[in-house]
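Q: Hi! First time doing this. I have a protein sequence and I read that you can turn it into a structure. Is that right? Here it is:
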Amino acid sequence: MSLYDIPVQSARGEALNLSDYEGKVMLIVNTASKCGFAPQFKGLQRLHETYAGEGLAVLGFPSNQFANQEPLEGDQLAEHCQINHGVTFPLFAKIDVKGRGIHPLYKHLTKAAPGFLGLKSIKWNFTKFLVDRHGKVVKRFSPTDTPEKIESQIRLQLSKD
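A: Yes, that's right. Below is the predicted 3D structure, encoded as structure tokens:
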């Protein structure tokens, strides 16, 4: 199954498909509004504003699997992130990014780009996956890798065909 075939839902519950982002470089992030890494929303937003015109899509997938740090849902979540962090990039419906109920998107991402020591499981909020214009997962970044730290990798992917 291609990454583009994986069904997702908008924050409002509308059925979507990642094929909407075919031909774009994607930065896929599992987010949580109450996490200590939540200040990264501002950096992610800056990447979105700076590079969307060149083909970058920053995509946030909220998860409540780490210390219940995402209690919000839908419009309430989107509004909170917009007011507190200026987020205008797409935030999707809350999903599981690990465990028995892992969403197919994260099953695909973690298989394609295992983490430290080859471990596939997501360890915390704000793990980031960089996907090239052809849907290939090219790099996984830890929660401590800030948007500013990974910007050069994003620019590199944007410069490729």
